[in-house]
Amino acid sequence: MNLRTKLTPIAVSLLLSIGTISAAQAEISSDKLTVNGFIDMSYLSGETDDESFHVSGVDQVELNFGYDFGNKLTATVDVEYQNSAEGVDIEQAFINYAISDNLSIKAGRFLSYSGWETEEPTGLFQYSGTGYAQYFYGYYQQGVSALYSADKFAVAVSIVNDLAGPQSIDTEHPGIETMVAFMPTENFTVKGFYSVDGDTKMLNTWAAYSADALTLAVEYNSSEDTAFAGSEADGFLLMANYGFENGLGLTVRYHDYEVEDEFGASYEDASGITISPSYAVNDNLLMVFEYRMDEVNDVDVDYLAVEALITF
């Protein structure tokens, strides 16, 4: 299932630890520096035939810093506090150089381009991710990436130490992630990713249509050796979101995936239906409600969540 961990950290400690700017840093120009972020908190309850659980608290606090040096060079640093076990962490730290209006190169630690569902809650249409990202998406990576984008298409190639290893510094056997994207109209996008890292192979494809208040998406994935040596996995999702007047929204999603071992036996078999209304209280506060019905290895699991997402 791989739902986001729900613990109760003291988020204020992050803000205090990075909110003090020394006099030695005073030369940073405020008109070139951008700061934004979010605070994500929730209540989550789940129930199976045998047990139930209830957790609540601050899930994640993040501050994103961007600096424009001029001369087509920028730097990005994202700092997060996710839970008491991880503490304060540098999520992303990379530089980006725009060779031209269409071609740019970045280097450092950055998030994979792959996957319809984003890693951050600010990019999700509902509260939870499907839980299958670990088998089909890349993760935070260290390396270099080139992106070429035009009006109707884009291509990208990333050479990284590890497709899903943000701490990896071993460059002897790098991973390669490739992307091809097509945008035939302003409402329709198709993206395909193929990633290789030794015996690990991942294929991620998705298409999305967005017009006015409606967003539709479909995703298909397959992979080898992502769960363990010899494993094979495939999965998909279907999603629809509609934004009503007065800040109301509704997301409905169905997902299904299976992981098999080297002998073809099922290791993990899961599917689920998610219904998620939301309400934008104002420009900074979004309330998300979710009811999710999963079946994981023949066990029924029901979830109920309420999320408050503050962006700034």
What does this structure look like?
By secondary structure, the chain is mainly beta. It has one domain (12-22, 32-311): Porin. It is 4% helix and 61% strand. It has helices at residues 12-19, 133-136, and strands at 33-47, 52-70, 73-81, 88-98, 103-111, 140-149, 153-160, 175-185, 188-197, 200-211, 214-224, 232-243, 248-260, 266-280, 285-296, 299-311. A 16-stranded antiparallel beta barrel has the order 1-2-3-4-5-6-7-8-9-10-11-12-13-14-15-16. Strand 15 and strand 16 (299-311) form a beta hairpin. Residues 1-26 have low confidence and may be disordered.
Please, how many helices?
2
Count of the domains: 1
Which residue ranges are poorly predicted, with pLDDT under 50 across at least 5 consecutive positions?
Answer: 1-26
CATH class: Mainly Beta
Topology:
Blueprint: H1 12-19, E1 33-47, E2 52-70, E3 73-81, E4 88-98, E5 103-111, H2 133-136, E6 140-149, E7 153-160, E8 175-185, E9 188-197, E10 200-211, E11 214-224, E12 232-243, E13 248-260, E14 266-280, E15 285-296, E16 299-311
Antiparallel strand pairs: 1-2, 1-16, 2-3, 3-4, 4-5, 5-6, 6-7, 7-8, 8-9, 9-10, 10-11, 11-12, 12-13, 13-14, 14-15, 15-16
Summary of the model, kept short:
The protein is mainly beta.
Write out key terms for the chains shown.
312 residues, disordered N terminus, single chain, Porin, mainly beta, globular
